[in-house]
Amino acid sequence: MSESGPPATGLEGLVVSETRLSDVDGERGRLVIAGSDIEALAGVVSFEEVCARLWSPFVACDAVRIRHALGAARERAFERLSAIHIALEARDGMDALRTSVSHLQPAEEALATNAQLTAAMGVFAAAWYRRTRGLAPLRPDPSLPYAADLHRMLIGERDPARAEAFECYLVTVSDHGINASTLVARVIASTGSDAVSSVVGAIGALKGPLHGGAPGPVLDMLDAIGSAENAVAWLEGELRAGGRIMGMGHRIYRVRDPRAALLERAVEHLERAGVRTARLALARAVERAAEDMLRKRHPDRPLCANVEFYTAILLDAVGLERNAFPPAFACGRVAGWLGHFLEQRATGRLIRPSSRYVGPFPERA
Ligand code: COA
């Protein structure tokens, strides 16, 4: 196509599909997942329950069945670890996940495929993470709920209070409209390809710092700032140098990301339960300073804290090192990717947009 039009940018505002899975209202700061406000799910329902809500429109399942399926699939994934050990030697956790997940074969039945992928992501992520710390992988305990077992396999011990906060995180990030990685998952699904390919592509998209790679840099930023008094000077220097404040701004939200509030509350809850968390007060001070500063620079474009800002604080508080943050995000978001995979496959429609050609044409003879 060569007709003129607005320059192709980031597809903002474009509706690429109908979905019954989630809705993001960026003006009001409202996230609805499968008919419920995120506030009614995060910290309230289990990860298995949110999987059931995201998958059951397309495949018969409920939270109990999913819990059993995930437990058995974790054990099978653990047995595969020696076969995929080279993938787990990657330095980056998302590279390790992408390569290890690509070794899987989809099962005959959709629920078995979803359970296999979801469980394997957790087992592979935990094995990779422990390897980076010189530790052997921990065998899964299929009797535990998914989130508690994944948390145990990551940090090496059972810790119910932290595991509860971790589950709140997994539910909070389980789905979020047609974000970049979900779009990738749907495009791959639309070609008639399989769920493993769809998830592998989505992992690649989530890896980027503009999508799922921001929380580690948020902690780096807080460490560099060091104290609330230093926040304004540090942030000013960062913006003057042309940098972006990690964990701030969003393509859709024009108010504070509702997930930021939920994760902040989950960390507060941990503190009330007596779990020492190092960075909450500093994070709040930096968020306030960053919001003020960005408001002055961009009076017409509200730039507030996004999910990644308090993801960093929560994942740190539950005992994870920053290299585990992107894989942890993928372990939650896979629930949504798989729902979108099934939804897209049900439409049977190939996603094939157009581009506007701006290159030269050959001279006509
Ligand atoms: N810090 C400083 N400035 C920011 C900013 C941030 N975090 N986010 C956006 N801006 C500025 C841009 O520089 C741009 O300024 P300009 O118009 O003077 O060039 C303006 O705000 C609009 O930004 P734009 O790049 O069009 O927004 P987007 O919708 O493409 O970006 C993000 C959304 C998330 C990619 C962006 O806000 C960002 O990079 N945030 C930091 C990374 C992050 O937290 N990612 C996790 C997302 S959940």
* Radius of gyration computed on alpha carbons: 21 Å
Total helical elements: 14
Strand order of the largest sheet: 1-2-3
Low-confidence stretches: none
User: What are the secondary-structure elements, in order, as H or E?
Assistant: EEEHHHHHHHHHHHHHH
DSSP strand content: under 5%
Distance between the termini: 21 Å
Name the shape in a single word.
globular
Look at the helices and sheets and give the structural class: mainly alpha
The hetero compounds bound to this protein are: coenzyme A
* Percent helix range: 40-55%
Mean pLDDT metric: 95
For the sheet with most strands, the description reads:
3 strands, antiparallel
Total number of beta strands: 3
What does this entry look like structurally?
With 365 residues, the protein is mainly alpha-helical. The chain is 53% helix and 3% strand. The chain has a 3-stranded antiparallel beta sheet, with no helix packed on it. The structure holds coenzyme A.
